[in-house]
Specification:
There is one protein chain. With 121 residues, this protein is of the alpha+beta class. The protein has a single domain, classed as Ribosomal Protein S5, domain 2. Helices cover 41% and strands 21% of the residues. Strands 3-4-2-1-5 form a five-stranded mixed beta sheet, with helices on both faces. Helix 2 runs parallel beside helix 3. The longest helix has 23 residues. The radius of gyration is 13 Å and the shape is globular.
């Protein structure tokens, strides 16, 4: 389980990643990334956003838990010193039911591979 300091928790941190970072979308999620300059250069931090379109609180919390697990499972591919935000799309619920964390990890890896030259937000 990720330590609290490895998570984005304030709305300003999310806003900075959305505003100044780059993004890459898949069918199931959108991955935003923002390279930090001055702060702890080696640490990777993650924020997860799941809207009510996904379902009730139980469903949203399950999706967040699976997304975090899948993201940190791909930690060997993450560039150091970046903030990431994972935004769940409504189709992710079906992916989790069908393939679990493995399917989400594949979608995250697809976004990481495509996000190197990703479009700016």
């Amino acid at each position: 389980m990720a330590a609290k300091r490895r998570r984005l928790s304030r709305s300003g941190e999310f806003d900075r990643v959305y505003r100044d970072g780059s993004s890459h979308a898949t069918r199931y999620l959108v991955l935003y990334r923002f390279p930090r300059k001055n702060e702890e250069a080696d640490e990777v931090r993650l924020g997860v956003s799941v809207s009510r379109k996904i379902g009730g609180a139980v469903d949203r919390n399950r999706v967040k838990r699976v997304m975090r697990e899948a993201f940190w499972g791909a930690s060997d591919r993450l560039p150091p010193g970046h903030d990431f935000v994972l935004l769940a799309r409504p189709e992710i619920g079906a992916l989790i039911e069908r393939d679990g964390a493995t399917g989400v990890r594949a979608s995250i890896e697809e976004a990481l591979a495509g996000g190197k030259g990703g479009r700016s937000t």
